[in-house]
Amino acid sequence: MSETRRPQSRAEREEARARPGLDAWAGFPADRRPRPLVLLSETARPGGFPTGQAKQAFHDGLVTAGPDFPAPVLRALRRPPRGGREVPPLFLTRATPGETWFDTDRGRQTLPAWCVWAQDVTAPVWVLDPATAREAWQPPGWVPGAWHHEEAAIDADDRTLTFEFTGGHERSYRYSGARVLESGNAVALIPNLTKFPTGPHTLAGYRRQVTAALGRPLGHRVLLDQRGRPVKVTSPAPV
Fold first, then answer.
1. Residue (of 226, 141, 227, 210) closest to 173 by Cα position
2. What is the pLDDT of residue 222?
3. How far apart are CA 159 and CA 217, in angstroms?
4. Which of 12, 28, 48, 195 could anchor a disulfide with 8, C-beta 3.0 to 4.6 Å?
5. Domain termination residue (choose one: 109, 133, 157)
6. Side-chain half-sphere of 55: how many Cα atoms within 13 Å?
7. Each residue of 99-116: pLDDT tens digit?
8. Mean pLDDT of 204-226
9. What DSSP assignment string belongs to 127-138?
10. Do residues 100 and 81 share a domain?
């Protein structure tokens, strides 16, 4: 007689959802000095485009430039062809070295970057310096910019976290603390959820907050959310 498999509990389903990301980030070299960058921002940040075609060309990586344009920066902005609607390439006119902010898993940092101008575009594109981008660490398949704006403030003890995330309405969902999963040099927080049978159940997201305590200091490990995605950690916790 075949054995009947019991349905997974909500907690088991939530942990199964977090596990692939947790395992992927387990190999993060937390003991390397300096600590590798974990980028949450995309490596190129445009300021806006005058037309839809120019915007599509940029996002498709369809860019060209003159012979004096820095080749590493041009390569950083190009993408493999994706097909779809053809648009004229975006012509890059000049690039100037400088610095600007990028979001990382340890807060917003000022990093070396290039200020790139394109023909007929009035706002520049900021591109993370390719040499700096090579210092970043990510598991296979992770794309910078996939961050969902989850943040956690950590207390001076390096264990107590206040985790802010997008969840359900307070009249329908109660969040009380969080479970902690660990794998190698990654830690995942899964808010404990109680769902009420009444109240508004919509697809709208609301900013919610829980407090959790780690078994040992976070240190240089990567903190992940309930879906195994990196979280921005700031210190100290706001009062």
1. 210
2. 96
3. 5
4. 12
5. 133
6. 6
7. 999 999 999 999 999 999
8. 92
9. EE-HHHHTTB--
10. yes
Give the helix/strand (H/E) hosting 16: helix 10-25
One domain, residues 173 and 208: yes
Domain of residue 73, residue span:
44-133
Residue 239's pLDDT band, with cuts at 50, 70 and 90, is very low
Both 58 and 83 in one domain: the answer is: yes
- Condensed to tens digits (0 to 9), the pLDDT of residues 25-63 reads 999 999 999 999 999 999 999 999 999 999 999 999 999
199 and 183 fall within a common domain: yes
Q: Is residue 231 a contact partner of residue 184, using CB atoms and an 8 Å limit?
A: no
15, 218 in Cβ contact below 8 A?
A: no
Rounded distance between C-alpha atoms, residue 209 and residue 107, angstroms: 18
Question: Considering the entire predicted model, what is its pTM?
Answer: 0.86
